[in-house]
Amino acid sequence: MDKDAWHERLETSADTPSELFEHFQARTDHGLEYYHLPDARHGLERGTVLVETTGAVVRGYPSVPRVLVLDPGVRHYFESDRVTIEEKLNGFNVRIADVDGTTAFTRGGYVCPYTTERARQLLDPGDFFADHPETMLCAELIGPENPYTVHDYDETETNAFRIFDVRDRTSGRPLAPERRRELCAEYGFEQPQTFGWHTIDDAPGAVRDAIETLDTESREGVVLKSEDGQSLLKYTTEATHHAELADAFALPFEYGRDFLFSRLLREAFQTVEFEDSPDRRRERAHDLGESILLPFAETIEAVADGETVGERHTVRGDPETINALLGHLREFQLTIDIESDRRLEGERVVTFTKVAASTNDRIEHYLDGGIVDE
Amino acid sequence: MDKDAWHERLETSADTPSELFEHFQARTDHGLEYYHLPDARHGLERGTVLVETTGAVVRGYPSVPRVLVLDPGVRHYFESDRVTIEEKLNGFNVRIADVDGTTAFTRGGYVCPYTTERARQLLDPGDFFADHPETMLCAELIGPENPYTVHDYDETETNAFRIFDVRDRTSGRPLAPERRRELCAEYGFEQPQTFGWHTIDDAPGAVRDAIETLDTESREGVVLKSEDGQSLLKYTTEATHHAELADAFALPFEYGRDFLFSRLLREAFQTVEFEDSPDRRRERAHDLGESILLPFAETIEAVADGETVGERHTVRGDPETINALLGHLREFQLTIDIESDRRLEGERVVTFTKVAASTNDRIEHYLDGGIVDE
């Protein structure tokens, strides 16, 4: 399809085809020619994909805003009288669509060869797409064997998908959450647990109850959704704030300054709104301090001992997929250290480290006596 | 003096007078006409002052680098065989020179009317400048009654100066530390405490000992100096890292992200180099967490209760000086809330809050349910 035709088909605020395509990038992966949008522009979400090969549009998943204060934040944000509360899972967020076969796209709009293969195997969505060709499954790939996130869930030994949204892939419009739950149940797709529907006035209390339960299980948090599924709002647990800081400070020079501050912000507003007792707040502060200093110091010690630090992942799949995945990661300038690479029941299982270059370099510099000029 | 004449007199890397003056700003304070340099440029330090009225140059105080790791940091940094260790005080850093009378300049090169008056009264440096007209006293104004810093010292009830350097004000060249100590003693000027001279190999251990002593007294840290006084290096205590974080998180939206990260960096390298036991490190982590979360949450609660938050200071002086000081602060777009204003033994004593506008505004926004779009 030429650029004029794409421009005419898309509902975009770009006035001309060239204005629209200025921010799209062209790629070809496994015979699929497509354009993808690395940042939200012209009324299109980040990760929006235009498939040259088939003419399909796969809209990006919208960025979900957060409130720091549930009351009155929830009431101010939603126009809907009722909201549903669902668990927000900590995994790898993809959109799965039938464009020249089942294909999984990352948040940024790249084809992920590993997730694509996992989706074909674990979801087997052929029947679903035969009945609903124009939709996309918005899913979290969770479990220890994934190449992107390090969070584990007790219920998942290798990987699993949870479908948290079904959307029209051309317009991006979501199914209403109630309809989506029915539809996914019908096709046997697993979904995040739900904490039910609540009136807008009851919702802050219901979120607090859900958050307390999730927090004791070290789970991430919740997403609130309006009746039509169009308005989304997220809120996370203390365990998540601390775990994210601990992950970040294990690789302290890889994560931006804003990353740090935003998590501290969530903690501070949460301890105030939850009216933590002085003892409880102090305990929270201690856990917070531990999540910052302990991983940071351990990483310095590891570098001092000559180790190479980075994020460790294990992946499993047919040999070709694993090859494609490693190529895909290296294409993003990542340095991959393979720790083990073996066959297990016909599959290839690889454990590797994504080398954290800045952290290794900066820590070595300071250990060598490098000065900080302030 | 015209710009050509200044350009000829100064040792600067600027090729032309206009290149030199591009970054200087002109000011007049209490009849003193001068140019000052807000940032280091053209081989001249930040805060360098050119006095039109008298033709005097007052060079800025150089930025003092820091190491995160004493061994080998100290050995790599110094060329000198011996270094001296002196206490680094936490106060307000000024240069005091005789330019049309004793005048105190801030780090940025502004005349501070309050510090000028304090210097005339507390130091009375007339005799010193009569004998050494071409020098400047580099001093820390410490004590609770100052308009810039909040740190207190047990030994100081109101304010006191400590002279940590004497420099030629035109060339910026320092006296050797040994000579400076004799000279200051001769004129009765107090100086920071010294931890003696050490060989370069013994210095890291000596700094550790000094830091341990200073840490138990919640004092800031040390500055190492070469024999000629030209090379300077600083290193700070755990107590300072935590206190600075606590001050910053009492006004969390006023301080940059880099402020936060740089303190965490110092903590992490220090706990590694000091080989803290697991229990000691955990205790440090808890104190760190408390210094972040507790003041942050208390400030949110204060704003929720309708208070205006900011930094609280008390100053004391003759009524005219206090007027000049408040005018000086307001000139920098600070909002000053006067809490009390009274006369005590012929002096005016004012307690005021510098209103922290970003912190008040952002916290109110989030308390009202403002969303964070990530």
TrEMBL record, chains A, B:
GO terms for molecular function: ligase activity. It holds the Pfam family Lig_C. Residues 82-236 form the RNA ligase domain. Keywords: Ligase. It comes from the Archaea. CDD domains: Adenylation_RNA_ligase (cd07894). Residues 248-370 form the RNA ligase Pab1020 C-terminal domain. This is ATP-dependent RNA ligase.
